[in-house]
Amino acid sequence: MTINQFMTADHKACDEQFAELENIIDQGNFDGAKAMFEDFHTHMLKHFDMEEQVMFPQYQNCEGGHCDPTPVMLMEHNQMRAIFTQMSDAINENDKEKFLGQSEALLFTMQQHNMKEEQMMYNMADQALNSEDIISQMKAL
Fold first, then answer.
1. Is-above-0.90 flag for pTM?
2. pLDDT at 64 exceeding the cut of 70
3. First-to-last CA distance in the chain?
4. Average pLDDT of the residues in 107-120
5. Of 102, 104, 111, residue with least CA distance to 84
6. Nearest alpha carbon to residue 1 among 141, 140, 134
7. Which residue segments constitute the domains of the chain, with CATH numbers given?
8. Half-sphere exposure of 103 (CA within 13 A, CB side)
9. What whole-number distance in Å separates Cα of residue 105 and Cα of residue 137?
């Protein structure tokens, strides 16, 4: 299995959780949404950790900073973290419109981000790193 295959599958799992969360909010079920948001948020943070604690540092060490996309990926992770905070606030306030506005921003950011990772970053990492070793380390987190 490649890093691209492993992480793309995780993107899809996060996307599915996100779609379920949007549906439950759209139905006005804020009690159910709280637990669902926590699961989604935890999953997304674990995904970020796999990249930020394992793949990005090893890629940066290997490539020596030449054509390194990781600073952009990190910036986008931080943008998403800020949106998560706004989404959490909206759930706690039972504010459907605020949540859906933030979820639209997150969806746009995630789609752009995932496309860059799946079409560029993960392929570059697969070429530069030992994919099996990286995946094993990411699973261990």
1. yes
2. no
3. 18
4. 96
5. 102
6. 134
7. 3-140 (1.20.120.520)
8. 24
9. 31
Contact at 8 Å (CB) between 133 and 11?
no
Percent of the chain with pLDDT over 70: 96
What pLDDT shows up at residue 63?
61
Amino acid at 106: L
Q: Residue 12, exposed/middle/buried by CB under 10 A (0-12, 13-18, 19+)?
A: exposed
Cα separation, 46 vs 10, in Å, equals 10
d(CA 49, CA 139): 11
Contacts 24+ apart (CB under 8 A), 103-109: 103/18, 103/21, 103/22, 103/25, 106/18, 106/80, 107/18, 109/76, 109/79, 109/80, 109/83
Q: How far apart are CA 33 and CA 98, in angstroms?
A: 14
Q: Which two tokens stand for residue 44?
A: 């997304």
